[in-house]
Design goal:
With about 500 residues, the chain is an all-alpha fold. Helix content is about 80%, strand content about 0%. It has helices at about 10-65, 85-95, 100-115, 120-125, 130-140, 145-150, 150-160, 175, 185-220, 230-250, 250-275, 280-295, 295-300, 305-310, 315-335, 340-370, 380-385, 385-395, 400-430, 440-460, 460-480, 485-505. The N and C termini lie far apart (about 45 Å). About 55% of the residues are buried.
Length: about 500
């Protein structure tokens, strides 16, 4: 503890804000919620179009870099990858997909199936209700979302690392400002703080929702009371897993937990295909992916219905942009020895396709049962929200109770893996070390659980407010991620020259 060196301004400001948010919510949750919602609406209206352009340009530049000689650049100092492809891909998938892999996979396709998004009618895009339901989910969890989380920013960070700089969000501007941004810089401190707060909001929200989902599921399966005590117990069971995983590090806990969850998720997907509507799922995936690709640009750049955009596309874009720097730091930490082409093809193409197929397996099954018996999924969804949707779907499968239990379990591991990865990444920022002190890793995992439990105790609306706060933090985060559009190709060229000189020796 005496030798623990921290970036105290970043630690104090970010930790202090979380404390103030909890206290303010305890004093007047309604006022805090209204304040966040007002700021959320302003952010969406003012920056929504900018975020849409930023997302699509990030993807296009990533594609361009993958296809040129820049794709040959090897990141880091290792001549070979540190992790096998399966271990590496598992950590990327589970960390970046997070709780959304279950929360939204069940609910979002159903929402869009029941209420066709306005972009289809207003742009003249042709799609059935099934295609509209699934392809809109593909947009929000597809190429653009994954690209902003782990492509251009990683290249810039790995360049800074090559120059001996620590992996911190402020390093995204290192090629512009040099070492001035890295040490005792007000701008650098603010960049780190906003990135940490965005990651905290985006992690604490799913932890709180997991408590609600687990409470709902355990009540349905075993008749346990759906009370705060159960929510609290589930939150700290999950946080305990995350803390142990973060404490054991990337090479043990985090990668083991990620691999385990990928295997369980694949088994679940295969089981649903075998016992559920396999032909409908596969047909829907193919036709809806065709609709997604055909309408990719009209959907990505749609600017018609501001209310719908704020509730869906802009909300998700703000969420993913806010997460961007922290996720880029984590991916940089595990991607030594990978080429830019490997990284971009995995993050921007393979991961989105796998995610979209999972959305079709879960959400498509829900649409199938809703078509067979209207109200069987939509009524629980409308009455009980996100936690109810997945259980309404799996209960209609053979062995429904077993599926429900496994989905509770897999969601716990999804969220725990994200919590341990984020706590590890925040600890890297606070300490400036690639392997931060165990105490600080455990501390941040416990903070996530404590804040989630406190806000859930105050009321579910406080969890919603904190999760919406990530969209506010996305405003400054998007401004300092904008330079990566030209800094990533620039730094990749510099890394290529360094690599060519080393190979010539």
């Amino acid at each position: 503890m005496k030798n623990l060196k921290l970036d105290w301004p970043v630690f104090a400001i970010s930790g202090g804000f979380l404390l103030v948010f909890v206290i303010a919510s305890l004093v007047n949750a309604g006022f805090v919620g209204n304040l966040v919602n007002t700021a959320f609406a302003w952010s969406s209206l003012t920056f929504g179009a900018f975020w849409q352009v930023l997302m699509i340009l990030t993807f296009i530049i990533a594609v361009f870099m993958s296809l040129t000689e820049l794709g040959k650049v090897r990141l880091g100092d290792s001549s070979k990858p540190t992790f096998s492809f399966f271990k590496w891909f598992s950590m990327i998938m589970i960390t970046l997909l997070a709780g959304g892999g279950v929360f939204w996979a069940a609910a979002e396709p159903m929402y869009h199936y029941l209420d066709t998004p306005p972009m289809y009618s207003e742009t003249g895009s042709a799609a059935t209700a099934i295609q509209a339901g699934l392809s809109t989910g593909f947009l929000h969890w597809g190429f653009l979302a994954w690209s902003i989380l782990g492509t251009l920013g990683v290249v810039v960070l790995m360049y800074a690392k090559k120059k001996g700089q620590p992996l911190k969000p402020r390093a995204l501007l290192y090629p512009l400002f040099g070492e001035k941004i890295m040490h005792k810089s007000v701008l650098g401190t603010l960049i780190d703080v906003f990135s940490i707060l965005a990651a905290c909001a985006g992690t604490i929200g799913p932890i709180g929702f997991l408590g609600l989902q687990a409470g709902y599921g355990l009540n349905m399966l075993f008749g346990l009371p759906d009370t705060f005590a159960i929510h609290f117990a589930m939150i700290f069971f999950l946080v305990g897993i995350a803390a142990v995983s973060a404490a054991t590090g990337i090479h043990k806990g985090i990668q083991w937990l990620s691999r385990f969850n990928v295997i369980i998720t694949v088994i679940l997907a295969i089981a649903i295909l075998i016992l559920g509507p396999a032909r409908f799922i596969i047909d829907s995936f193919v036709t809806s992916y065709g609709s997604y690709m055909q309408n990719f640009f009209p959907m990505s750049l749609y600017r018609g219905d501001e209310g719908w955009l704020s509730g869906w596309t802009i909300f998700f874009w703000g969420w993913f942009i806010g997460y961007g720097p922290i996720m880029a730091i984590f991916i940089s930490r595990i991607s030594d020895g990978r080429t830019i082409r490997e990284l971009f093809l995995t993050v921007a193409f393979l991961a989105p396709v796998v995610t979209n197929f999972w959305f079709t397996v879960v959400g498509g099954t829900g649409i199938f049962y809703e078509m067979s018996e209207p109200g069987s999924v939509s009524d629980p969804l409308n009455e009980g929200g996100l936690p109810a949707s997945i259980f309404a779907i799996v209960n209609q499968l053979p062995l429904g109770a077993l599926f429900a239990f496994l989905f509770i379990f897999v969601t716990c591991v999804f969220v725990a893996t994200t919590a341990d990865s984020i706590s590890y990444s925040i600890s890297m920022i606070i300490t400036g070390k690639e392997t931060p002190d165990r105490f600080i890793r455990i501390f941040w995992a416990l903070i996530f659980g404590a804040v989630a439990a406190a806000l859930l105790y105050i009321g579910e609306g406080s969890i919603d407010s904190l999760q919406s706060f990530i969209v506010l933090t996305a405003v400054p985060v998007s401004l300092f991620m904008l330079p990566t559009l030209w800094l990533a190709p620039l730094t990749a060229k510099r890394l290529l020259r360094i690599q060519q000189k080393e190979e010539a020796k």
